[in-house]
Design a protein that fits this description.
By secondary structure, the chain is mainly beta. It folds into 2 domains: 332 residues, Glycosyl hydrolase domain, family 43 (Tachylectin-2, Chain A); 144 residues, Exo-inulinase, domain 1 (Jelly Rolls, Sandwich). 3% of the residues lie in helices and 49% in strands. It has 1 helix and 35 strands. The longest helix is centred in the N-terminal third of the chain and has 17 residues. The radius of gyration is 22 Å and the shape is globular. The two termini are 37 Å apart. It binds beta-D-fructofuranose. Beta-D-fructofuranose (FRU) binds next to β1, β5, β9, β13 and β17.
Length: 495
Amino acid sequence: MTVSMSEALQRAEAAVGDLAATRRDRWYPRFHIAGVAGWINDPNGLCYFNGRYHVFFQHYPYGTDWGLMHWGHVSSADLITWRREPIAMAPSLPADRDGVFSGSAVVADSGELYAYYTGHVWNNGVDFTDGVSQRQILAVSADGNHFDKVGVVIDNPDGVPQFRDPKVWRQGNTWYLVVGVGTPDGFGEVWLYDSDDLRDWRFERVLYRSSLPGTFMLECPDFFPFGDRWVLLFCPMRALPDGYERRNIHNVGYVVGHWQPGSDFEVIAEHTELDRGGNFYAPQTFEAPDGRRLLFGWMGGGPDQPMPSQADGWCSQLTVPRQLGLTTDNKLTMWPVAEVEALRSTTDEHGALQLTEDETRVVATDLTAGEIDIEIDLAASTAERIGLAVHKTPGGDETLIAYDVQTGRLVVDRRHSGAGQRGYRSAAVRGGTLRMRILLDASSVEVFLDEGREALSLLVFPGEGERSVELFSEAGTASVTKLNVHRMGSSYERH
Ligand code: FRU
């Protein structure tokens, strides 16, 4: 039986509406994108189209687990105030029978929005045990809300077991597409295609093969320039952990190199991890009209990492939009876009603070959605650990964000965060003065340090009650040279 997409979308809207009617909001984000209810994962189809930013995302509207994938949709005129749009795409073709998987969108010369996604099919109709068939599909929209599926534009090459997540961009008069591949002999690769008309795609070459041990697939590739250097961003599946590196089941990384149309990609900076938190995956970038390279990532977890918010009728959220940069030493930096500052409602400026040995000081009360800007003079401090306890509840839950002098790293520790995943993540600090920007939302912590050279994104699910923020020094003194605490307003348009 085939259903039309409009029937499938109506059913999906009804289902997600039912779930939303009983959604609980103790952990629901105030200024991060999440589904109105149900499950979400990767950001998809990021673009600026007809005067608005559009963010689509992987969405299961029938429940709070990963399932039959649709494209959910929100849009915004300013990158921070989000309007919910109807679900944009649902499975309706034989080639996307088991999921409208991740992909991207570009504005064609015709003024239409061209969305490319992976049509997903379980060969046995149920699960992956008999393999999957993945193909790249085009859908076209005149208004950004209603899509007509054109059909398969890149069929599955014989014997390629994993073939998904097309990302399209324009270079001169040619369109290019990168796609993630798991080869039959178990390697993770990124393949490059090109096209003159957005419909007829030619295989160009294998752009990149990962040599990370354990990796068999590179999901969600993205390829973009900073001047004459190109960044290839991707998600190596199951790359093995090594010390501080790759602590998550799947992680995000990038390489930097030189590339020109018609040439090989010449890597000049080897694999580096992007965002060292416990919940950052499947990021996608796009170019804003003013030329900024912006990124959204998915803050969530795999099917083997249940999320406490599933009991509340929803699961997972996206990061705030982040502006990317590339340093001279080939480090990709991320920083919340300037627009995020407009969400600040009030600001407490604490100025300089000296903490004596083992002092704790409350610097904010009743702060569920906020931003903390802090500068710590490490050279003038003697403490072994200096930091903040955030999302601190009357019941004793707290998430620690602390500099550890022995390792020289900034640690985010979830041992006592509340419900959900435990464990800690860390990033190297370059000494001198530690400058951090921390975004707190109802169930997330995003930490940016060192002008964006490091970031850590994690989900936390604190218990009931007002949440406070405490500054602390441990086994020594701390010299804080600046501390601003901002309260953040909501990102959702009310209507
Ligand atoms: C990454 C991913 C993609 C795929 C999508 C399915 O999280 O596995 O490779 O297209 O999610 O939801």
